[in-house]
């Protein structure tokens, strides 16, 4: 299977669907689910949330050209923003031509928190908890025998005395291919009385932490500078300007927020397509970006040895099993389309797409600016027709940019 599908953007939608289905070998039922105009259905929506009155739809696209760890991926993306899918496909093509993206993800360790309050002596409580930790971990594992049998379940329990004299207990568990919030919430609620038996005091909040910093995904890529050449600038100049833009993001939280927003354009689009809790992903990403006390870019590009070297590290609490996925037919379909074997592979691919999305944004910003391509795609939406610019970003390195399209009447969001 190759994700290199030149001219994919030019095909009518039905032909795009057929090509994707053929490429990844989708089943007949997945093919018809892909074509279904109303894949969720109101009955299902009514089961998923309260007070449902209908269904809200978003465009479902597929980014091409992704080569991650030597494997081709067709990447399902759900987004309302023009240019995201084209930009991801364009950057993936650039990186593909220089060997692709290397990506990996940690085991699926999630942290649950139990806050113990009303303690006369938190230091003593912490010492007691430390002593009882091996037994408490065994008790936690016994509470979730199915997870434990799969090689997952509780791994560690630790305590920290907080400045206000309360005790924060962290319970760490491997949640396997699940996103894990439910499993961890069940665990901390069940374990809180056992913890209080040891520490004294009372258990207040018991909940998963969305700063999934034990569950990081990383990706890296190298792009020779000559591939970045444009009509107006040498590759050396573009690479230099991209690296300076990353330095700026490291020094200005106002820029870092926008830099990271561009990364999340890619990551959230896959999160939506595969039925993830994208609020959890967003919360974790931004908390991680700020964890050293200043808000930092999640991905950076260095310019050395005539190449750009990019790297991203981001917490990604994502799952390939669970109610959120099984309740939405498109989520399962997206996972089959992507062809990932589990949560770690999904996280690695998402990090890779975030890195590519960042490169596409920085390359445009370092050269002609974001508006021309963006505006062209907005205009395409307005006019219901394709533009040369779309063709350029989807398929061809912009060594010879098309002339700027006429300015549309309204500014993009
Ligand atoms: C727009 O959705 C995303 C960008 O602003 C990202 C960036 O500035 O790096 C283009």
How many strands, which pairing sense, and closed or not: the largest β-sheet? 4 strands, antiparallel
Q: What share of residues is helical?
A: 40-55%
Secondary-structure class: alpha+beta
Question: Might you state the CATH topology name of the largest domain?
Answer: 3-hydroxy-3-methylglutaryl-coenzyme A Reductase, Chain A, domain 2
Order of helices and strands: HHHEEHEEHHEEHEEHHHEEHHHHH
Shape: globular
- The tally of strands reads 10
Q: Report low-confidence residues grouped into runs of 5 or more.
A: 384-413
Distance between termini? 36 Å
Would you state the CATH class of the largest domain?
Answer: Alpha Beta
Taking Cα atoms only, what radius of gyration do you get, to the nearest Å?
Answer: 23 Å
Strand content: 15-25%
Secondary-structure blueprint of this entry?
Elements: H1 13-24, H2 28-35, H3 42-48, E1 60-68, E2 71-78, H4 84-96, E3 102-105, E4 109-117, H5 122-143, H6 145-149, E5 153-161, E6 167-174, H7 181-199, E7 202-208, E8 216-224, H8 235-251, H9 253-273, H10 278-289, E9 299-304, E10 307-315, H11 323-326, H12 329-338, H13 343-366, H14 371-383, H15 388-395
Antiparallel strand pairs: 1-2, 3-8, 4-6, 4-7, 5-6, 8-10, 9-10
Helix pairs in contact: 1-2, 4-13, 4-15, 5-7, 8-9, 8-13, 9-10, 9-13
The protein binds (R)-mevalonate.
(R)-mevalonate binds next to helix 9 and helix 13.
